[in-house]
Amino acid sequence: AVAGQELCQPRCAFSTLGRVLCLAYSEAGISNETLQLDSDDFVICQKPVELLGEKSSQSGVSVTLESTGLDDKTIKYYHVQHLLYKRFAPDISSLVLSDDIKLHSLQLLPIYQTGSPTSDRKKLSQEKELLSLFCFFSLPHVGYLYMVVKSVELMSVYQYPEKSQQAVLTPQFLHVITSNNLQCFTVRCSAAAAREEDPYVDTTLKACPPVSMDVCALRIQLFIGLKAICHFKNHIILLTKADPEAIPERREPPKRLLSRKGTNVKFKTPPVAEAGWNLYIVDTISPVQLYKEMVDYSNTYKTAKTQSCIHLLSEAHLLVRAALMDASQLEPGEKAELLEAFKESCGHLGDCYSRLDTQYSHLALPYYKMSGLSMAEVLTRADWPLEDGSQKYERGLIFYINHSLDENLDEELSEELAAKVVQMFHMAEPKQLPHILCSPSMKNINPVTAMNYLSKLDTSGFSSILVTLTKAAMALKMGDLDRHRNEMKSRPEMKLVCGFILEPRLLIQQRRGQIIPTELAVQLKDTQPGLLVASVLGLQKNNKIGIEEADSFFKVLCGKDKDTIPQLLVDLWEAQLVAGLPDVVLQELFFKLTSQYIWRLSKMQPPDTIPLRTSEDLINACSHYGLIYPWVNVLISSDSLADKSYTEDLSKLQSLICGPSFDIASIIPFLEPLSEDTIAGLSVHVLCRTRLKEYEQCIDTLLERCPEAIIPYANHELKEENRTLWWKKLLPELCHRVKCGGEKGQLYLSSLKLYCSRKKSLT
Ligand SMILES: *[C@@H]1O[C@H](CO)[C@@H](O)[C@H](O)[C@H]1NC(C)=O
Ligand SMILES: *[C@@H]1O[C@H](CO)[C@@H](O)[C@H](O)[C@H]1NC(C)=O
Ligand SMILES: *[C@@H]1O[C@H](CO)[C@@H](O)[C@H](O)[C@H]1NC(C)=O
Predict the structure, then answer these.
(1) Cα separation of 273 and 572, whole Å?
(2) Which is the closest atom of ligand 3 to the Cα of 724?
(3) DSSP 3-state assignment of 79?
(4) Where does the BLOC-2 complex member HPS3 N-terminal domain lie (predicted)?
(5) CA nearest 76: which of 15, 18, 17, 11?
(6) Tens digit of pLDDT for each residue in 11-70?
């Protein structure tokens, strides 16, 4: 940076992670134009210029690294990075050219990533990682603070009330001296660093006061003849020189805006000094103490809902945040105290944003989250309306509660608090009421209370399918089955399905990661299983519930353990196949269905409930279920002893195997439990082998077990290239068996006759 006329040459270098970040005042870029000022009568001023980041290399200022003290090997790892070039134009109107643009107090301030409140990563080693870097410099009446590292940006501008002499920047404060004052300003370094550190800042999870928030003067202390300032840890060291003529008559002791206790001024020289040099060490007040004073001060704003309260609390919050970032300097006790203050300040900010009707009221949510306060605690802090309902609930609180209830937190509100929440939403956001009532946190709501508010919705024009369903659920809770039935009957099924899609929690709740069916779901299971399956399918179609979740929902609902599959779940799978859900892997679904059909067939286990769809329904509705081959029906009808209760499962399985999309080979290993001793089992095995084109084996089996089916089988299967099997295999076998006679001789003979008549009719 080059200041027009006055040249200074401080070098400021700072090494981090093998890089030298450097900003230098340099003689190289001096403009000599102002020199013309003296010789000519006009003033030619250069325009002010600001170049940020790499662009600043265009300034023409050249910087060279000197290798003093470094060996040549290491120097090659260092390079120059241009950060900032700023040229000020003298203010012509003020006519104090030289003084107004005299730069001073260039400083780079690093902030490291250690022990911040928001990061839970444990840094084992002492190795510090640079999080952010700030660059400060000052003119007599104004100071500039830039954010460096990723990009270079102007962060804050400090306008001093009087001409400054020198300034020092710390993570918490900017201290500036004028000839008679030590001034202290707030800084935004921790706000910027927090954003570097945590990508979740500025989401619904976390917040931090904005970097752009106005800076403010915290305090002014009087000193006489201030000459220089520097800073070490929590101490400000001041050098003063009182000019004898300038000493005013006994001044009042140093005045502080905020604190009387915290600042100890230690006089290292006799208090009443003659004209001469004095050295002062001022201990800065501890962040926690200052924080507390600021919070106390903010209480004066509490009743008047103003932005100032938020500003003050934000300053206090940043102060604590900055101290926590500087954690290496903290005692363990101090750190705990700061963390406590941090949470507390988040709670205060949450309160402010929840009460004040600002465009930022949604910030109540992240601040309350960071505060660690439970929903019940927040609700208890909030002011309650008067009995006549004259107090309006502000958006921030509604936003926070609405969001928290939507998140299915494990916290359960008491009956009283739940009632207050319902009352709040009734007043502020009536449309949201059904959703609110479906939150697991509202489990303890008195159903009569809820019903009253829901009925009010109906009469005030907010009636909706959700209100109907929520009322049906509340009626169940009240044990009023008639009312429940009436509510459910008042709308067509399609509408009800839509309602469940809008609010899945009417059916399915999650508590501590567990899926819990609601009372309403349990009731539907018994009374309207079709609606229940259609609704869950609707949820899946709309990505409101995953495949596994739906499976475990039905298992829990039907009280089955992990390995037993209720018929309702089979109904859902069949419905999924019919609906052609895009996300479902078809073969996986086939596998689930066939293994269930097979399992039940092999165990002679009828379905636990009446299936919603028959095999005929499925064949008609779904292309994956194929028409069952005619010979299969001949085969099955030959078994007069078959138990009719499994025929549905058997038909569905056969139909799937006859269908076009089924991967037969994959099912073979799972057919084993299905014994070929029964005709049912036999039919499935022969079907599979047929689909794998193992015709000869099938012919043998059928001839042995069910000669009646052999001709229909041959008619259906032995076509085209396989027609030779008629001659080479089937005919000789039949003739041979007829010749042998025996028990089945007659059957073979009739088959042979059937065969001959078919052949005749064909030729
Ligand atoms: C200013 O500098 C330029 C070269 O950068 C030189 O040519 C010129 O004479 C200088 N002017 C004055 C007034 O010194
Ligand atoms: C409440 O939350 C729901 C779901 O997140 C959202 O759609 C709705 O707009 C919210 N309402 C209010 C008032 O915040
Ligand atoms: C039946 O025909 C298929 C082609 O459709 C052929 O791959 C297969 O080998 C034939 N089987 C016999 C036993 O001839």
Answers:
(1) 93
(2) 14
(3) coil
(4) 29-270
(5) 18
(6) 443 333 323 333 434 333 334 443 333 444 555 556 778 888 888 888 877 777 776 666
Distance CA(615)–CA(618), nearest Å, equals: 5
Under DSSP, is residue 202 helix (H, G, I), strand (E, B) or coil?
coil
Instruction: Give the H or E element holding residue 1.
Output: none
Residue 52 sits at the vertex; the CA angle it makes with 51 and 58, to the nearest 5 degrees, is: 50
Two structure tokens written together for 408 = 């299915």
Rounded CA-CA distance 237/229 in Å is 6
* Nearest ligand 1 atom, CA 36: 13
Give per-residue pLDDT as tens, 482-539: 999 999 999 999 999 999 999 999 999 988 888 999 999 999 999 999 999 999 999 9
With a 6 Å cutoff on the Cβ, whether 126 touches ligand 1 is no
Q: Say how far apart CA 251 and CA 247 lie, in whole Å.
A: 9
Average pLDDT over residues 118-144: 73
More confident residue, 260 or 720: 720
Full-model pTM: 0.77
> What's the gap in Å between 535 CA and the centre of ligand 2?
23
Nearest residue (CA) to ligand 3, atom 14 = 722
DSSP string, 157-175: EEE-SS-EEEEEE-SSEEE
Q: How many CB atoms are located within 10 Å of the residue 426 CB?
A: 19
Nearest ligand, CA of residue 724? 3
Ligand 1 atom closest to 35 (CA): 13
CA neighbor of 708 nearest in space, from 679, 736, 688, 667: 679
State the number of CA atoms in the 13 A half-sphere of 270 facing the CB: 5
DSSP β-bridge partners for residue 201: 206
Order the strands of the 235-241 sheet from edge to edge.
226-232, 235-241, 277-283, 265-267
Number of separate helices (H) and strands (E) present in the chain: 31, 19
Own/partner pairs, 146-155, CB within 8 angstroms, 24+ separation? 146/83, 146/84, 147/192, 147/211, 148/21, 148/83, 148/84, 148/108, 149/196, 150/196, 151/52, 151/53, 152/52, 152/53, 152/56, 152/83, 152/84, 153/52, 155/188, 155/189, 155/192, 155/211
